[in-house]
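[Q] Does anyone have a clean structure-token version of this?
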Amino acid sequence: MRLLALAALLALAALGWRLWQGPPLETLELRRQDLVQTVVVSGHVETPHRADIAAQITGTVLEVPVREGQAVKAGDLLVALNPAEAQAALAQADAALVQARAQRRQLEELQRPQAELALRQSAATLDTTRASADRAEALFAQGFIGQAARDEAQRALVLADAQWRSAQRALEALAPNGSQFALAVAAVGSAEANAAAAAARLAYTRVRAPQAGLLIARNVEAGDVVQAGKLLMTLSPAGQTQLVADVDEKNLRLLALGQAALASADAYPQRRFDARLAYINPGVNAQTGAVQVKFDLPAPPAELRQDMTVSIDIEVARRPQALLLPVAALREPASAAPWVLRVVEGRAERCVPKLGLRAGGWVEVLEGLAAGDRVLPATAGLAVGDRVRVAAP
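[A] Here you go.
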């Protein structure tokens, strides 16, 4: 009986001791490891720009020798329009140009020599008439001829002088700096411009790739009648591929040019590739509250396609061997001063640590806790000062 009583007494003492120690609870331990904070966004693949290829004249499509998704080189034929009307217009413009050049040549080779000859003839006539007028004046003074004869000689001199001046002006007009020559030169220039415009219009019947790239849209077929300005194809030019994404403005303070990122296409989620933040839009979209950002790809994977959806993890901060606290231990985590219950000598003690980065279920501890400290999960129903017993791992 004594042994049974002693055993019962010891059992009661052990139970009382355990009750006095508090309930056994699982705890969370602080530890040191690298912490990387990321911002995850969704975006799409984009080349720096697209080229919308449109018709520049109205015409009927004769041929479309390319297909959607085809890679083309600069100058490759994309669409051929019926050139008959443009060819006729060019022939007419070329004929007008030949005529204008012939008229200028006629001015130089025929009209100008004729004007020079006429000037020489009028000058000779003027000299002869002036001599005759001088003789008539002398004879009149001597009384050998009358006033009528003297006046007739003077009228002939005035007429000869007028003819000489007219011939002189005609030759000046035909000179390289004269008005007639300038009109001939202008006519040739106008004809050349019309011929060039007609040649350009004919060239517009052959729509070619402005640069190398990938055709991502085709909106025309042979037999279509297209109007000037109608979109025929969309070309994604070959060049640097970028990722474009919209980031919530609340994360704007975390972003900086040059930050590293890891991306993956939704079509190939297991194939991750490097990216680097290259552009942050200075404005915020008022409707969505987002900021557009762009990423350069040092080595874009071959499987990337224009407008493909991608997921991007932006590394915004890194702390090597930081002291980390599980976020599950934080109480009032959204307040200005989150706190934890730390186990100190078998009791739950309130502790308000100074915190830093948060990422992946962990938060960086700057002050207030040390490595190896154990804290209670926020779900543990204990108050400050309660006894607690650390459960065996």
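[Q] Thanks! Anything notable?
[A] The chain has four domains: 23-37+319-390, 40-48+239-317, 51-82+208-237, 85-202.
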